[in-house]
TrEMBL record:
Name of the protein described by the UniProt record: Toll-like receptor N
Domain TIR span(s) in chain numbering: 594-732
Gene3D superfamilies on file: Ribonuclease Inhibitor, Toll/interleukin-1 receptor homology (TIR) domain
Subcellular location, record wording: Membrane
Originating species: Mytilus galloprovincialis
Length: 744
């Protein structure tokens, strides 16, 4: 730095001198030649001498001069000493060189730079002089790995004489040390070491007391050793992170100081990694004396069961990882995850049988009220909707739920009714093909952002698959690697793809058709963009609807027909009359030519109806004048004479038929008389009213002949009564349409 500055000053001076010279050539010529000449010489000398040292040594790779990287890497067995490095180097990495014997001067070249990090990896070092590190005043990180010839006791001496003003990290990995001397850090009375990593050695037994001089220790890693026993006592209480993974623990170490009323030895420990050990069981005392624990990693242990209330002593526990337990996990107690702080729980690849009775779906998460992330990939999920619902119903805070590879062959309709906060749902690599009611499955997931359903057996996506509100507020949707049917049933989906703003993950590459056969392996995208001749409405639906409508109509008609066939008959009767009237027949003697509009034939039993119902309706309401023998016949004359006389005076004839009528011989005689009339004027002369259906046993030949001669009206009360009267009146008013034979 100061050299650069010095050189620049010289240049500035020379330039000034030169400008002075130009302005004033002759007088100062000698001044320039004397003073400037010396300066130029110094400049050149400095440049030449220091240009040499900036060169990167052979076998080494230096970073560009002005980059932020200050690390040099030297490799090669032919490098047998530590060379001199450019001054911008702060980190030296000796990797696979041959340093064999490091004497007290071997590190001299390192004192010429500001060395902050020294990495010695696989340099065949068998000895390091105790005073080697003493002169490296800026050293903050010492990293020694794969130096299997280096005895730990030799290093211990080196460390004890090293300067510790800046030393923060000590990393000794894969050095095949099988033991750590108890006085490893004995000379560390005042130090700033925060991180110690001694992974990949073969320690079997560790007494943490040896770390006690490291009073600032924050993180200790003893991963990848063969530790079976660890005595935590004496570990600096400042410890926050402890890595004990990949060892041979069979039980969880004891964290309590039994001398001091079971207080914690590691009262600030936040992170504990015990993964890939040989821990077979977790007891409810396993995690006592870890009052500040936040994150616990227990992956890869052969844990067979999880007891009740194991985390109740860890009020800050945030995350628990219990994944990759092989096939060992067989039982989870009812209140195993009772923890009001637990936010993230990872049970993936445990192959746990949630489809069996080895847990209680109602309680498993009911006391994990803060659970936000739940990973259940590669387990056997419940086989029934109700168990799913029980399991997930208390997780109102859940944001991420992973159920991939859960052997699900259905999507539970009401399996997730309470997951209102859910943002990410992963259902990849299951076995479900369709779910009829997307609304029931997803409706309450109003916060959902990412939905992953790749690698299932989904054939068709249509408007019933997802509630539109949920679907359109998604950020991403993964439906890749499903066996799509490229048929008209897919029309909705292919159209949706074209217009949506939702990110369809891995589209179009991993969306292929599997059906029909001729489109096997075709891209769904290609099908989506092809011209499709799909009926706007599925023909099957049309067919079904027509069928059901017809069925409904038929049933209605039959019911109606059964209920009111009289009305129908009357209705047909009325229609026929109206129709004929429109045709306009030859009209003959009309009503005006007669005194009476109609002659009423009835038997005595029906007199009441005729007088109280028929007469008022026809005469009073309609003004049609009727001839009734009880009223109009002249007294004294014989009945037959009366009948003949008044029949002549009447235009039409009304016959009121009933069982009584059929039984009465007198009435039968009257029928004979009026039949004669029909022969003359045609059947339109008659209005036959069936007051009550005539039983077959009362049916006589004359009656049958009368009924066969023309249609009859049936009397009806209630619904259809108006129809009856309309038809009766219409018949009475109807002109005669056929030429009476007698007048021809
Ligand atoms: C220091 O480096 C120089 C040049 O790279 C080398 O010749 C010398 O041997 C080194 N000194 C030591 C003590 O290794
Ligand atoms: C390393 O250097 C020593 C001498 O310093 C030599 O005897 C040995 O053969 C060298 N090893 C290799 C692998 O080059
Ligand atoms: C859950 O843990 C709390 C302490 O955090 C305890 O009081 C409660 O009894 C436990 N619940 C059950 C059901 O065991
Ligand atoms: C629940 O989890 C959140 C983080 O998701 C955390 O901030 C909060 O403190 C937790 N609640 C309890 C009671 O521990
Ligand atoms: C889920 O949604 C349905 C319909 O939107 C609603 O009736 C029901 O109360 C919701 N369930 C919960 C737990 O909020």
């Amino acid at each position: 730095m100061w050299l650069d500055l010095f050189k620049r000053l010289i240049v500035i001076y020379l330039l000034q001198d030169l400008s002075y010279l130009v302005r004033n050539i002759t007088p100062t010529m000698h001044v320039y030649t004397n003073c400037s000449y010396i300066l130029v010489l110094i400049y050149v000398l400095i440049t030449i001498t220091f240009a040499k040292s900036i060169k990167c040594p052979n076998n080494c790779k230096c970073p560009p001069k002005h980059s932020n990287n200050h690390e040099v890497v030297c490799t090669g067995r032919d490098l047998r000493y530590i060379p001199l490095f450019p001054e911008n180097i702060h980190d030296v990495r000796m990797n696979g060189t041959n340093l064999t014997y490091i004497d007290e001067h071997s590190f001299d070249n390192l004192t010429k730079i500001i060395l902050k990090k020294l990495y010695l990896n696989d340099n065949l070092i068998s000895y390091i002089h105790p005073m080697s590190l003493a002169k490296l005043k800026f050293l903050a990180q010492l990293y020694i790995s794969d130096e299997t010839r280096l005895n730990v006791d030799v290093l211990k001496k080196v460390l004890s004489f090293s300067t510790k003003q800046k030393l923060k990290r000590l990393i000794f990995e894969q050095n095949s040390w099988c033991d750590l001397p108890i006085d490893m850090f004995s000379n560390f009375s005042s130090n700033k070491v925060m991180k110690v990593r001694m992974t990949g050695n073969t320690f079997a037994d560790i007494k943490c007391f040896l770390f006690s001089p490291l009073t600032k220790l924050f993180e200790l890693s003893l991963s990848n050793n063969r530790i079976e026993n660890i005595n935590i006592f004496g570990i600096p209480s400042t410890i926050r992170r402890l890595h004990l993974d990949n060892n041979m623990f069979q039980t969880i170490p004891d964290w309590c100081d039994h001398g001091k009323e079971d207080t914690s030895v590691v009262e600030y420990l936040k992170y504990l990694d015990l993964s890939y050990n040989n821990i077979g069981s977790i007891l409810n005392t396993s995690f006592v004396c870890l009052p500040k624990l936040k994150k616990l990693v227990l992956n890869g242990n052969p844990i067979a069961g999880i007891n009740n209330n194991i985390f109740v002593n860890n009020p800050f526990l945030y995350s628990v990882q219990l994944s990759k337990l092989g096939n060992n996990l067989k039982k989870i107690d009812d209140f195993a995850f009772n923890s009001s702080s637990l936010s993230s729980l990872n049970l993936q690849e445990t192959n746990f049988h949630f489809d069996q009775d080895n847990f209680n779906p109602n309680t498993i998460f009911s006391f994990s009220t803060n659970l936000t992330f739940l990973y259940l990939e590669n387990t056997y999920l419940p086989k029934t909707e109700i168990r799913m619902q029980q399991m997930f119903s208390s997780l109102i805070k859940l944001k991420v739920l992973s159920l991939s590879s859960g052997r699900l062959n259905f999507l539970p309709k009401n399996g997730f009714p309470y997951l209102k906060s859910l943002e990410i749902l992963r259902l990849n690599a299951n076995k479900f093909s369709s779910w009829n009611d997307g609304n029931a499955v997803f409706r309450n997931m109003t916060s959902l952002k990412k939905l992953h359903m790749a690698n299932n057996f989904i054939r068709i996506i249509d408007e019933t698959s997802f509630p539109l509100k949920v679907l359109n507020s998604l950020e991403e949707l993964d439906l890749s690697r499903n066996p799509y049917a490229c048929t008209c049933d897919q029309l909705w989906f292919t159209e949706w793809i074209k217009t949506t703003t939702v990110k369809l993950i891995k589209y179009p590459l991993f969306y292929t058709c599997r059906q029909p056969n001729e489109l096997d392996n075709e891209r769904l995208q290609k099908y989506a963009e092809s011209k499709k001749e799909c009926p706007p409405w599925n023909q099957l639906y049309t067919f079904a609807i027509v069928l059901s409508c017809t069925g409904f109509l038929l049933i209605t008609m039959i019911t109606l027909g059964m209920k009111c066939h009289t009305n129908i008959k009357n209705c047909i009767y009325l229609q026929r009359i109206k129709h004929k009237r429109r045709e306009g027949y030859f009209e003959l003697p009309e009503a005006d030519d007669f005194e009476y509009h109609a002659f009423v034939v009835y038997c005595d039993a029906d007199r009441k109806w005729v007088h109280q119902t028929f007469l008022p309706k026809i005469e009073q309401n309609e003004g049609i004048k009727l001839c009734i023998h009880h009223r109009n016949f002249e007294v004294g004359e014989s009945i037959t004479a009366n009948i003949n006389k008044y029949l002549e005076k009447s235009w039409k004839v009304v016959v009121i038929l009933s069982n009584e009528f059929a039984k009465s011989e007198w009435c039968q005689w009257e029928v004979d008389v009026v039949q004669e009339r029909r022969r003359r004027y045609g059947r339109d002369v008659f209005l036959l009213i069936m007051l009550k259906t005539i039983d077959s046993k009362h049916m006589t030949n004359q009656l049958r002949a009368l009924l066969d001669s023309g249609p009859s009206l049936r009397y009806q009360t209630g619904v259809g009564e108006d129809l009856f009267w309309a038809a009766a009146i219409e018949t009475l008013r109807k002109p005669l349409n056929h030429l009476p034979t007698a007048l021809l």
